[in-house]
Amino acid sequence: MDDDDGEASPPPAPPAGAAAHSRDMAESPTCSRSVTKTVNRSHRFVIQGYSLAKGMGVGRRIASETFSVGGYQWAVYFYPDGKNPLDNSAYVSVFIALVSDDTDVRALFALTLLDQSGKGKHKVHSHFDRSLESGPYTLKYRGSMWGYKRFFRRTALETSDFLKDDCLKINCTVGVVVSTIDYSRPHSIQVPDSDIGYHFGMLLDNYEGVDVILNVGGERFHAHKLVLAARSSLFRSKFFNAVSDGEKNEADGRSDELQEIVIDDMELKVFKAMLHFIYRDTLVDDNELDASSDGSIFDTLAAKLLAAADKYDLARLRLLCESYLCKCISVTTVAITLALADRHHAMELKAVCLKFAAENLSAVIRTEGFDYLKDNCPSLQSEILRTSGGEEVCSSGGKGRSVWAQLADGGDTGGRRVRHRI
Predict the structure, then answer these.
(1) Model confidence pLDDT, tens digit, residues 222-251
(2) Are residues 174 and 45 in the same domain?
(3) Using CA atoms, how far apart are residues 340 and 298, in angstroms rounded to an integer?
(4) Does any domain span residue 273?
């Protein structure tokens, strides 16, 4: 046997392409990072009329409006007579509750009873900014709560600076724990926002390719049938669906002439705002939208533009107007805004108005707008009352008759008599 027979053969050389691929892999490492943090949000819960809430019973609570943090719904529960029967109503209890249908939600919490004397000596119970041996609190299911059965002794609370004008203020902070994976990307390209509205607007401004004239109050606007038809089913029907064969032949014989259409169902400023949206997909400036000669909501450009959007089937414009008008809702305007929304099929705005009116019923029923509903839209008045559940309204704080009962007897909520409608 030769000595060479015992030596191992060298491995075959890799193909040239494989070597290059190996070098590329070595030069382009990847990495990732797990990031765990909290998504925080605060909610202030004001308890007005604390002395009237006492005596409602152990385990009975007053709940805040629900609020969203980290994709979950939460509420603050205040127990004027405490939560634990063994404490004999000696303490008030405060809890933060998970009210959405979720499980195993991990979170940090803070409850702060505000010092209303201005001294800043608040009572704070917080998970934040301190070490937690067992980590964040886990709420297992809907209805799980974190808080204190003995949040504050009642006798001490009622003589403290935390209670002022029969009112308590509690700040609640929830920090939902979320984990994300952050991984590196070697290259990225920033894509700007869409500018299609700008370019379509230039078509309108420069009269490029126009093929129709819209006449509004004697003022003529050059436009494009395809753009108008693509945006509005009413324009589409006007330009394409309802053209007879005779009209087509007549149009072909004078193809060099622009078709002129008279728009006589809206004011000039409303049409300009609608045309602005059709081409640019945006509303005109806010100062134009709320301009009104006598302060009436019906006379604002926003309201008239809502009506135009409803008629011309411009769903996005209608929603933009609803969003704008929603920001203007108040006790004095909600009833009229509700009538406007109902008239022009603005269902999102209508739902907001009904909820707001129901939540502020005792003030809304004393407004001129509510009287307007009684005279012009009694069904909407009934919808407000149904939304509120016909709840009792009594400004003095004592027992009051329900709104339903007062109206059924032929009286309004201000003590006047009203005539039944048949």
Answers:
(1) 999 999 999 999 999 988 875 555 555 555
(2) yes
(3) 7
(4) yes
